[in-house]
Amino acid sequence: MVNMQKIKSIKSILVTNTRAYSDGNSVAADLAVLVAQNGKRVALVDADLRRPLIHSLFDLPNRVGLVDILQGQRSPSAVMHSVNSNHLFVLTAGKLPAAGTDLFALPKMNELLRQLNDEYDKVIIHGPPFFYSEATTLAGKVDGVVLLIHPGHTKSDPSQAIMEKFQKTGATIIGIVMRDQPKYQVNQSAFIDKLLTYDRRARLTP
Predict the structure, then answer these.
(1) Is 54 a domain residue?
(2) Which phi and psi (to 5°) does residue 149 adopt?
(3) Which domain holds residue 67?
(4) CATH code at 90?
(5) In angstroms, rounded to a whole number, what is the distance separating the alpha carbons of residues 199 and 159?
(6) Cα separation, 2 vs 187, whole angstroms
(7) Which pTM value belongs to this model?
(8) What is the pLDDT of residues 38-88, one digit of tens each?
(9) Is 43 in contact with 79 (CB distance < 8 Å)?
(10) Which 8-state DSSP code applies to residue 204?
(11) pLDDT of residue 24 exceeding 50
(12) Which residues contact 46 (CB under 8 A, 6 or more apart)?
């Protein structure tokens, strides 16, 4: 189920999960690929520093990445991987930083997002699970948040409480994806159609 009401233009999207367990797939990666297939230049960023996944999905090295940029050791262009001609670009997570360090709260994260927003049509972030503070930090920095809900597995906050938690950061919930559901792929495709439709409308708005 997705909700795109009141959204005119969306550049950066955080995808976050309501549980820590990963089934080896990434909705963020799926969305990035689909948007790129529609002719958009897309930056896919792996911001799940505890359980980085994106590099394995695209068979990329993960020696350096997002962590190195935020620590001032690399430039984005030095660690960005082109995986689909001039459309899909991947920024892997890099090595896990020291425990207790919220790199996303640093000014470098704002600087990186501004640069990516300038250079790409879409910035899609594979984020950490929603209950980590880093997810809340990121939610307040992007244009929209997509929540992955697992019916029957979400035993903590109910969906409404989760959305309220993120909205307190100033985040906009633009979609809810119900995983492990028969219509999951259909809903995901519908989300992409809505996203691109809103972009077209935004361009026509004076």
Answers:
(1) yes
(2) -105, 140
(3) 12-204
(4) 3.40.50.300
(5) 27
(6) 7
(7) 0.81
(8) 889 999 999 999 899 999 999 999 999 999 999 999 999 999 999 977 899
(9) no
(10) H
(11) yes
(12) 52, 53, 54, 55, 65, 66, 90, 91, 92, 93, 126
Please tell me the total count of domains within the chain: 1
Q: Give the tokens for residue 159.
A: 């969906």
Residue 106 falls inside a structural domain: yes
Nearest to 27 by CA among 136, 199, 189, 200: 189
Q: What proportions of the chain, in percent to the nearest 5, are helix, strand and coil?
A: 35, 20, 45
> In this structure, is residue 4 part of a structural domain?
no
Q: What 3-state class would DSSP assign to 178?
A: strand
Which amino acid does the sequence have at 21? Answer: Y
16, two tokens: 């976050």
Dist. CA 96–CA 25, nearest whole Å: 20
Query: Which residues have CB under 8 Å from 24's CB, separation 6+?
Result: 53
Cα 125 from chain centre = 2
Segment (H or E) for 87: none
CB 179 within 8 A of CB 18: no
Specify the pairing of strand 144-149 against strand 12-17.
Answer: parallel
Asked if the structure places residue 146 within a domain, the reply is: yes
| Three-state secondary-structure class, residue 30 | helix
* The two structure tokens encoding residue 25: 């797939």
Rounded to the nearest 10 degrees, the angle between the axes of helix 184-204 and helix 27-37 is: 50
Q: Are 56 and 168 in contact (CB under 8 A)?
A: no
Residue 112 is which amino acid?
A: L
**Residue 104's CB: how many other CB atoms inside 10 A?**
26
Tokens of 61: 């090295």
